[in-house]
Amino acid sequence: MNLREFRHILRQALYFPVLLLLVLAGFFLQQLGKSSVLLRAINRSDKVTAQVIDLQKLILDQETGVRGYELTHDPEMLAPYNAGTVPIQNEFAELGKLLAGNDLQLQRLAILSDRYQIWLGLTQRILSKDGSLTTGTEVYKQGQQMMNGIRDTVNAMLHDEDLRRRILSAEAPDLRHRVFIAILSASLCIGLAVALFTRQRLRTVSRSYNATLDALEERSREVHESRQWFQTTLESIGDAVIACDIAGNVEFLNAIASGLTGWMMHDALGHPLTEVFRIIHEETREPAESPVEMVLRLKRAVVLPTHTVLLSRQGREFVIDDSAAPILDAHGQMTGVVLVFRDVTEQRRSAAALVAGEKLAIAGRLTASIAHEIHNPLDSVANLLFLLRDEDDPAKRTEYLQMAQQELGRTMQISRTMLSLYREPKAPVAVDLKDLIEGVLLLLERRILQQHIQLKSEFVEPCVVEGFPAELRQVITNVLVNAIEAAGPGGHMRVRLESAGPEEFRGAGALIEVADSGAGITEDAAQRIFQPFFTTKGEQGTGLGLWVSMGIVQKHGGTIRLQNCGQMEYTGACARIYLPTKTLASADRPVAVFLG
Amino acid sequence: MATGNQSVPKPLILCIDDEELGLQIRGTVLERAGYRVITAMDGDSGLSLFASEPVDAVILDYFMPSMNGAEVATEMRRLRPKVPIILLSAYLNLPPEVTGLVNMTILKGDGPDVLLAKVRQVLPAGPEGAEMEALA
Lengths: 596, 136
Hints:
Number of strands of chain A: 14
Largest sheet of chain A: 7 strands, antiparallel
Number of domains of chain A: 3
CATH class of the largest domain in chain A: Alpha Beta
CATH topology of the largest domain in chain A: Heat Shock Protein 90
Helix content of chain A: 55-70%
Number of domains of chain B: 1
CATH architecture of chain B: 3-Layer(aba) Sandwich
Oligomer: heterodimer
Order of helices and strands of chain A: HHHHEEHHHEHEEEEHHEHEEHEEHHEE
Structural class of chain B: alpha/beta
């Protein structure tokens, strides 16, 4: 039941009894009206009786006066007669009004009036000493008879009125009793109806209230269970989770978070996050910005910069990968911040091992060329020594020795080039990119020749950048070997080096472009080509070359892009490496690797 | 620089290698050992010499531009299958289909003693006298 229904029921419970009571009141009034009609009828009957008696008395007074005058002829005796004339007329008029609707009595009143008029006529003649009148005794008798007639009519009226009154009076107690019974039963009925209705309505409300209580109980149990479920889920999750309120105080941390921070849930509760979750930058060791502040500032989820180190309560250090997101309520208001992080120390170590492994893999890919380049001059030197052993001619000896020296020099150069893949200065040095690229090409020359690849080198201008030559050589080797493998026998490749002017987002530097006539890269491969372990070469590739190259180039502050060039004979992929003149790299800064 | 006046003509060895200096020195070593040597710097010119000269043995470099040793050896076997071929290589492990084409293989850097020993193996009727003289 919702609030509207509840109000509706309340309204019903109020208005229905009021309505019934109004009906009851109406019934009362109607019953009372009935008895008052009876009372009025009795009153009128009494009034009629009184009026008739009054009238009779007035008429008798007139007669007495007239009779006295007849005897004495004293005009004073006529005073009652004269005084009665007007009231008698009034009495007749009033009785006429009172008896309206009672035809029998009205008829009698009319007879009375006629008889009175006749008597008055006789009286007038007596008073005017009409000669036609016979003897006094006769007149007297005539008057007596008339008066008797009036008296009879009056008596009949009085009798009738008395009868009526008696009938009405007999009715009164009966009516009172009936009214009382009616009122009592109506009251009982209505009281019962109100009680039943109210009971029924209240029962509905009570049932609904109980249902609501049950639902609330169920809801609260569900909420509890769901809370429990979320808690368990967060506890069981493989990543560390810390939730804190808007003020940055810890509200929850799961077991993994406890393990990494060294804080138990009950210790950490209510403590500021900055105390529990102490993070510093891996290289600078400066405190890192609190993720809570970052989220509050940016009002969106943030990913912490890489190279963040978490210091545990016990002083242990973990390289972590971390993200923080706002906790929003139903209205979109931020109520807290949740941190999700994990220990990537091991991952970082594996990545470093992969980077080192890739260095060896590059050397491996060069082995064939190196073997050839070293064995050829060594073979010559061995042969020359053999010849020198039996040669007596000093001129010949000198010639052989010179040749041996020349061949040894070549061997040295090759071995030095190879070693330079590994030897690295402590600080960035000036690197002549033309020398560097030519050195790598020297190692790859045979391979290019053997595969009949047409190589076009375009060194537009000398380019010197700051950097670590061994790492850059590794990048160049990687890109060139990729181009050779892509171009395949009889293919084309072009190496171009030119300086690049400063642009909006980068300073001046050098641009190395390596294009080949291979199949190019598919869109799918382009998306993933810089990810670790992605290779298009099956068992032949480690899938780490471009990933490590990307790391090295980015460490130098440069960029590396791979796309299809689609120019003339260079139909395949085109690698563009930009290196800034002033490097960002330092010896302490490891090759940045991108996990995933 | 042939020496001696044997009635038997000295065996003729065809050396093919794209490394000019190495080829020249190898030729000198073989001549010192008593063989006649002709040289070529790539597969094509080597094959034309092989076709025109009465070559007794071939010392062939494997890794060369334009035409590798295996291709040259296949062609030679087609022309004159009896002529022994020694394949020179800087690689330690050449595929069997390549080594199966030739009589033997030599690793570059093995030195002249190994080279001469193998040449003697494929040319038993070698210039004994000349060799003796050379070693004396």
